[in-house]
Write a structure and sequence with these properties.
transmembrane helix; 6 helices; transmembrane
């Protein structure tokens, strides 16, 4: 069944894509919150090196957010394709929670955080070895671990919400509409 150009312009954005954007904003908010609580409770700085400058930490976190956004958009695209295939085969909504992809998203977000932070720190310090020291320091700190763990949690929540809501979740009804 093909869709005419007029119909494709009037079709709403699929629920999964909108949900992926909201989940990305949620991930960003959780990372900021986690960084604040970790800093408060451990009395440490997010970037332990004082000569790093003000942009290393935010840019590293932005890299992790970008990884999560692209992973969620990819998952939304796969989900929409699975919904189309199951609708054509009259199978109902496909319900899958990809744990492996959630874990790999967390690992890639953590790696992007460490990699971008180390590259920017090396550029700020004008030494390649300084970037390697930054990476070694950031790998096992709670901030980097929080970036990865929160990416896994947000990806799993995204997948569970998609599985529970279907491709077109029902809108809430007012009492007089029931």
């Amino acid at each position: 069944m093909s869709v005419s150009p007029e119909e494709s312009e009037n079709r709403p954005t699929p629920y999964s894509y909108v949900l992926s954007v909201f989940a990305t904003f949620t991930y960003f908010a959780l990372v900021v919150c986690a960084f604040g609580f970790i800093s408060l409770l451990t009395d440490t700085e997010v970037v332990a090196r004082p000569d790093a400058g003000p942009l290393v930490g935010p840019a590293a976190a932005a890299a992790a957010v970008a990884v999560v956004l692209f992973a969620l958009l990819g998952a939304a695209r796969q989900y929409e394709a699975a919904v189309r295939r199951s609708a054509e085969a009259s199978l109902g909504d496909p319900v899958r929670v990809p744990l492996g992809r959630a874990i790999s998203t967390g690992i890639f977000a953590w790696a992007a955080y460490v990699f971008v932070g180390s590259i920017l720190y090396a550029a700020a310090a004008d030494e390649l070895f300084a970037g390697m020291l930054f990476a070694a320091d950031a790998i096992l700190r709670l901030y980097g671990v929080a970036v990865g763990v929160l990416a896994v949690v947000v990806y799993l929540a995204f997948a569970l919400i998609l599985a529970a809501g279907g491709s077109h979740p029902a809108r809430p009804l007012w009492p007089w509409e029931k």
